[in-house]
Specification:
Oligomer: single chain
CATH superfamily of the largest domain: DD-peptidase/beta-lactamase superfamily
Helix content: 25-40%
Largest sheet: 6 strands, mixed
Number of strands: 25
Distance between the termini: 118 Å
Number of helices: 24
CATH architecture of the largest domain: 3-Layer(aba) Sandwich
Number of domains: 3
Structural class: alpha+beta
Radius of gyration: 34 Å
């Protein structure tokens, strides 16, 4: 009996072993084959080449500059090979003395590993000009590899820097959002480089490799080509942009030149900066100088500069007044100031404009007309109407982090300050002062609406590959506003062409244009001050900002030109010559068809 039980026990053990062997060798074959593949098959990503950015005439704006990286063979940082490593690093720095031994050694150690069999880049980028004289000597060295490595380059230096933006090294936050950046290493940080980064960076390719247990490459099994060189064509004309930068000279401010369909031909924020400084990493000294400059060269004033609009909004308010029941023949008697309670509200012209209707009020920018009109219409209608016209909201331009600005009203003040609205604030808002804030891009869009009756979506991208970007025009005016718009347009024509127009003496373009001037106060001036100091007599940083926003030609509006000169004083005198020269240039370049 015991013998039988013992035989039965051993029989059971053998059967169990056979079942286990069958399971491991047959049933689990796929599972272990998969594990085996993971141990022997390696997938390696191939970095795509970033697409170029071109202007509307296919001139280069952002390109990949030809250069090279210098690599050393792996596994030299050992006791046996360390002298070889040091000798080769010294050999490199002897030929390229602007490089430093410590930096190259540190870079090598950072990426050296027992499992890394690939050459290690000790220099990420050397320009073509620097490498050519020493290329043959480096290339003959058995431990050194010279590999082509493109680097982002902006050939126009400062021109259109705020629109184009720049590429810089990706940080961990960037990589967390887009894991592809771990492979690519750089990312668009501002401007269209940032807005269209996902398109420009491309899609990585893939190499499938057979490797040994120590990660050594045995065979290449499959290669998937990266999707790269996705070029982006912009609407801007870099030659026009360069011309405007020369016109602006040493002034601070912004210029936007836009077709009435929303295509931006030029957009500048001044002073400008050189984006090439950021590609390899800007020094802390240069960075501090940039951000501490009182004229804010690093701020994109086109969409991030917030300024009181001043009288520039009187065209839109005039349209709101007329569509709210005020007759175009309704007039006020401007004496230079208006009493409200215990306060006087000043008109910019201390002697007054006398009898003034809507035509004269816009032509000569009479504050008194708009004060009294605002009391008839009220802040609710004024605010709602201006928001419909594109103020107090994003224009939708294809640039990152566009500011919204402020169109103040009762609800806004209650939410922001938890305070009541006062009637005096309605008067201040009617001349674009107080808490009112806009960007140059918003005013450009707003002027396009006054010129054509359509609100365009500004855009900088013209084509992605060969696909043209669609235009987007909004029909935001009511039927009544459309009927009254010609009255506003006639007054805007008189601003630039009537002897008493606020821009008349400063416009000398070959094109007949229409527009509106504006003065945006930098410091508050008490309404009790009946006769205020002249702008030219004020110290520079206390002078008002000067607006001039125009369209032309008047019979067939094709172009909007908005000029903002910081601390320029008066819109006509500060912006008139710049605006005139821009229109003449547009005519010469064929952008305006008379």
């Amino acid at each position: 009996m015991r013998t039988s039980l013992l035989i039965l026990f051993f029989f059971f053990i053998w059967i169990s072993l056979l079942v286990r062997v069958f399971y491991l060798s047959v049933n689990s074959h796929d599972y272990y084959a998969s594990l085996s593949d993971k141990n022997t098959i390696k997938t390696e990503a191939i970095a795509p080449v970033r697409g170029d950015i071109l202007d509307r005439n296919l001139l280069p704006i952002a390109i990949n500059k030809l250069g090279f990286k210098i690599e050393l063979q792996a596994h030299l940082n050992t006791k046996k090979n360390r002298d070889i490593l040091i000798d080769n690093i010294r050999f490199i720095t002897s030929l390229l003395p602007f490089l430093h031994e410590e930096d190259l050694l540190k870079q090598y150690k950072k990426y050296d590993s027992h499992y890394n069999h690939h050459p290690i880049a000790v220099v990420d980028f050397i320009s073509y000009e620097d490498i050519v004289p020493v290329y043959s000597k480096l290339n003959l060295n058995e431990y050194i590899d010279i590999i082509s490595a493109p680097k982002r380059y902006y050939p126009n230096q400062k021109i259109a820097a705020h629109v184009i933006g720049y590429v810089a090294r990706a940080n961990q936050k960037d990589i967390d959002k887009d894991p592809v950046l771990k492979l690519i290493g750089s990312v668009g940080k501002s401007g269209v480089e940032k807005y269209y980064n996902a398109y420009l960076e491309g899609v990585p390719g893939e190499r499938k490799l057979k490797v040994s247990a120590t990660n050594e490459e045995i065979a290449e099994l499959k290669v998937t080509t990266p999707i790269e060189n996705r070029n982006l064509t912009l609407t801007i004309d870099i030659d026009l942009q360069r011309y405007i930068s020369k016109l602006f000279k040493d002034q601070a401010g912004s210029v936007v030149v836009m077709k009435t369909n929303g295509e931006i031909l030029a957009a500048g924020s001044y002073p400008e900066y050189n984006p090439n400084a950021f590609v390899s990493g800007i020094s802390s000294k240069k960075w501090q100088a940039l951000i501490s400059d009182v004229d804010a060269p690093f701020t994109n004033k086109i969409i991030n500069g917030l300024y009181p609009p001043g009288s520039i909004i009187k065209t839109g308010l005039g349209l709101i007044y007329l569509s709210s029941g005020i007759s175009q023949w309704w007039n006020v008697h401007c004496t230079g100031s208006m009493e409200l309670g215990n306060r006087n509200f000043r008109c910019w012209k201390s002697s007054g404009h006398e009898k003034t209707d809507i035509h004269k009020a816009i032509r000569e920018s009479c504050d008194d007309y708009f004060y009294k009109g605002s009391l008839k219409v009220g802040i609710a209608k004024m605010s709602a109407g201006l928001k419909t016209f594109g103020l107090g909201k994003k224009t939708g331009v294809d640039l990152p982090h566009e500011f919204v600005g402020t169109v103040p009203n009762r609800e806004w003040k209650r939410m922001k300050y938890n305070q009541p609205w006062y009637i005096g604030e309605t008067l201040n808002s009617s001349i674009g002062q107080g808490n009112f804030l806009v960007t140059p891009m918003q005013i450009t869009q707003f002027t396009a609406l006054m010129a054509t009756g359509k609100l365009p979506k500004p855009h900088l991208a013209l084509k992605m590959k060969d696909e043209k970007i669609e235009e987007y025009l909004q029909d935001v005016l009511t039927t009544k506003q459309k009927e009254k718009l010609p009255i506003i347009q006639k007054a805007m024509i008189e601003v630039c062409n009537h002897p008493k127009g606020t821009a008349y003496h400063h416009i000398n373009s070959k094109i007949k244009i229409a527009g509106k001037t504006g003065t945006a106060q930098v410091i508050g001036i008490s309404q009790a001050t009946r006769k205020r100091i002249k702008e030219k007599d004020m110290s520079y940083y206390t002078r008002s900002h000067a607006w001039l926003s125009t369209y032309g030609p008047v019979k067939n509006p094709q172009i909007i030109v908005t000029v903002l000169v910081e601390h320029g004083g008066h819109g006509g005198s500060a912006g008139g010559n710049i605006t005139s020269r821009i229109y003449d240039r547009l005519l010469k370049m064929g952008y305006i068809k008379e």
